[in-house]
Amino acid sequence: MAKLIYLMRHLRESGTDRKLQQLILELSEASKYIAHAIKTGEMGYAGTSNLYGEYQLTLDVLADKIIKERLDHTGLVSYMISEEMNGVTSSHKNSMGPYSVCYDPLDGSSLIDANLSIGTIISVMPGKQILQPGKNQVAALYFLYGPRAALIYTVGNGTHLFVLNDAYEYILQEEYITLNGFGNTYAPGGLKQKWTSKHAMFIHYLEDNGYKLRYSGAFAADINHLIAKKGGVFTYPALKDEESGKLRLLFELFPMAFIIEQAGGAASNGTMRILDIEPSDFSQRSPIYIGSKKEVRIAGKYLKKI
Ligand code: F6P
Prior knowledge:
The chain has 2 domains: 7-174, Fructose-1,6-Bisphosphatase, Chain A, domain 1 (2-Layer Sandwich), CATH 3.30.540; 185-303, D-Maltodextrin-Binding Protein, domain 2, CATH 3.40.190. It has helices at residues 7-13, 18-40, 58-74, 197-208, 219-229, 249-262, 293-304, and strands at residues 45-49, 55-57, 77-82, 89-90, 99-107, 118-126, 139-145, 149-154, 160-164, 170-174, 185-188, 212-213, 233-236, 266-268, 288-291. An 8-stranded mixed beta sheet has the order 4-3-5-6-7-8-9-10, sandwiched between helices. A 5-stranded mixed beta sheet has the order 12-11-13-15-14, with helices on both faces. The protein has 306 residues and is α+β, with helices and mostly antiparallel strands. The radius of gyration is 18 Å and the shape is globular. β7 (139-145) and β8 (149-154) form a beta hairpin. The chain is 31% helix and 24% strand. 6-O-phosphono-beta-D-fructofuranose binds next to loops.
């Protein structure tokens, strides 16, 4: 029988910095509580709303609290910001911590009542600075809470997938994940009536070429689909009334772009690489085309058309 490889061993043997190992392990512990809460927790409203005016479900609030407390406990984080927090929260235990962390505690939380897969997305930046381009990230990871809980991480040395077993341990399922140069599925976000004509032409191209529709409504689940099927494209484009689209750079796009690039894919806003964007605002949004290289390149061609 093949030997099980635990997360701790994988991090150690891949030469990950000791402090970063500790941070990722703490986050993996936090995710176990979140996975458990999703299975057993309440689904009502918490009665508060976040910076973007969305209702927070109790599970969002709980997931946010679990991660925040874990990060605080490490003493390794000088600044942290989450999609559910109203602004930057500094970690009081160690303002000299070597990392800053941005996270979306429960991505796709509007799907909880539909019992579909949702996730937690995390970006780790070096130093005491949140507003940095995504290419500076030292780690990115997401947890997927589906029929099985999974962890996908990169520290800049490939993208690796772990699944949670019965004993609540993350076990390596696949390391150095490699997307194919092209895929056969597409996940198109945003209301069709609000698409620009250039974007609509790109989607027509995909449909005319036999791509199958796969869109769940949770970014983490849709990215995980690309990873599991080794290709395809996800897009949440610029809209006629919202040229930055919907998804947030710091909490969603930077970490997923890092993970997908490390798996041999690409991520662009249509004209430039996501990881090269210099953020100026915590809540900055961007259009996104992410997945295998061919589709992202073709999206760029359509978006440049006059
Ligand atoms: O940003 C939150 C989010 O739920 C993502 O997880 C998802 O990709 C997107 O919004 C779905 O948006 P829409 O409901 O417009 O398709």
